Amino acid sequence: MAPPLALPCSSLAPPLFPPWILPGSSQFILTPPWILPGSSRFILTPPWILPGSSLLLPYSSLDPPWILPGSSLDPSWVLPGSFLAPPLFLPGSSLDPSWVLPCFFPVPVLWRAVDLSGRAEPQRDMSRQVHAHILPLLFVLAVATVLHVTWTHVSRNNYLMKLGSQFWFAPITVPPTTTEPRGLTPIPILHQKDLKKMPQWDFDDQYKTERERQDHTVYNKCDSSLWTKIDSDPELRDTFIPNIRMYVFNGSITMSEWNRLSHFNNPFGFMDFNHQDVMKALNLVPRPRAPLLTPKPGRDCISCAVVGAGGILWRSKKGQEIDSHDYVFRVNVAVTKSFEDDVGNRTDVYVHTAHSITQAGTRKFNNTQAPQDEGIKYVLIPEGMRDFEWLQGLYKHERLTFGSYKGRRPWTLYSDAFNETRFYLLHMDFLRYVRNRFLKSPTLNAGYWAIVRPTNGAFTMFLALHLCDRVDAYGFITENHKQYSNYYYDRGADTHMVFYPNHDYDLERALWRRLHDLGIIRLYLGAPRSNKTM
Predict the structure, then answer these.
(1) Greatest pairwise CA separation for the chain in angstroms
(2) Are strands 303-307 and 327-331 parallel, antiparallel or unpaired?
(3) pLDDT tens digits, residue range 385-439?
(4) Of 327, 320, 332, residue with least CA distance to 304
(5) What is the pTM of this model?
(6) Are 346 and 304 in contact (CB under 8 A)?
(7) Rounded-to-integer distance, Cα 498 and Cα 485, Å
(8) Cα separations (Å) of 164 from 42, 173, 314?
(9) Under a CB-based contact definition with an 8 Å cutoff, are residues 420 and 247 in contact?
(10) Long-range CB contacts (within 8 A, 24+) of 405-409
(11) CA distances from 363 to 328, 334, 367, 425, 480 (A)
């Protein structure tokens, strides 16, 4: 019998490819790499054939040593648990000749050939067997190494990850690739005061989007969804972006994104803002763990009520109808106490700015705090630098020592002393999309263009439109707004609606009526009141 074949010491992973050819045997493939780390497992598959024997070594997970009967005399080959580090001893008979496999050269350094009875063979037979077995092995090993290097370069990571799902060892994770240029820095700060009207950029109407409409899982199940109507109207279909990115969070604003958004004024971008000041806040905001809305059990459609503060709701008796929806959105000073019959008492989503939530808890409106219903979710519109300052105190649970709200403790204005898993920050692209596609006012060409933007109610309306199948709007401006007080909590007083220059109320009024006529929303139009006072 030929002396046991010397197995080269190697720590290569993944396995050698193509298969090794053992002299005196058929081909075999080691898959995955047969590693002997002294642990309780290694795998050889498919079976390989021992030289000089017809014995097949099937798949096994036996703890080494393995005792392999090799002939009729049954000498034992012992394969100790090892990582093929030198020396690896293969006792082959009672005389215990040792084959030593050094880690950096795949041939024996110290060897002594014996036959199965333990007697020394003639020297010339030894020399012939060395040439017959070792030299072909060296040649095959050299070729295999070259092929292995090439193969590794092409498919190493994919192969290991595939194997990792089938075998005991952990897969190698590959860091995600990025197209972010190296060494990118913030562009010089652009200032609103240097621009006489809203600038127009080639990328002004480009927005971040998601791969799919992830925040609405029943979209394809609701036959009466407003999105079915949008898809059937070519103009609406081209205007709406169902998978627009809606939220901003830690990691979502890369340096290239910062530079792009720095071309737009707040709340649509970062013009006038310092990168470090803003990122201190954004880096605190985690990625949302769950959708803002989830379907109610047993329902295919999501119904939403969006409640504004218009005086049209005074004595409307719409409270029960509002609370019958799956979700109720409220915005700004969302007073419900003492007005439940008209506006309901539920709040599932509260949309606000730092300014509006601080105003919500004022006795002027017979209100002590912003809505704090059980399970309520909060959505912040980052309209200015003061909102990013607010976020720092909110997430750090620290009293603010700087900025517009110095001395305030933001988290105290939210339910459960603020639960970050129920807090969402609207993305600048979503806000700009609402303005550009639906509410682009002519006043953006005026000298005061930088303060012109849709109302918080408009942003709330489009938030609901992108999450719900049915949207009913209450307390929004209508053609007959002059018949009502400014706000429903004015209790019918003669306070006509104030048209502030930073909002285009006529544009919003026309849009709500058009969407109502198209069946996209159902707008509460109210009725004339002959007695507006108590």
Answers:
(1) 124
(2) parallel
(3) 999 999 999 999 999 999 999 999 999 999 877 899 999 999 999 999 999 999 9
(4) 327
(5) 0.67
(6) no
(7) 10
(8) 14, 10, 65
(9) no
(10) 405/354, 405/358, 408/358
(11) 24, 13, 5, 27, 29
d(CA 519, CA 513): 10
Among the listed residues 217, 25, 221, the one whose alpha carbon sits nearest the alpha carbon of residue 140: 25
The answer to whether the beta carbons of residues 492 and 526 sit under 8 Å apart is no
Is residue 477 within 8 Å of residue 310, measured between CB atoms? yes
Which of 252, 253, 242 is closest to 214 using CA atoms?
242
Joined tokens for residue 449: 């263009």
- b/e code 129-162 from CB counts within 10 Å (16+ = b): bbeebbeebeebbeebeeebeebbeeeeeebbee
Task: pLDDT band for 104, please (50, 70, 90 cuts).
Answer: very low
How much of the chain exceeds pLDDT 70, in percent?
64
Length of the chain: 534
Give which of 371, 422, 386, 404 is closest to 247, Cα–Cα: 422
| Structural domains for the chain | 20-164 (no CATH), 217-523 (3.90.1480.20)
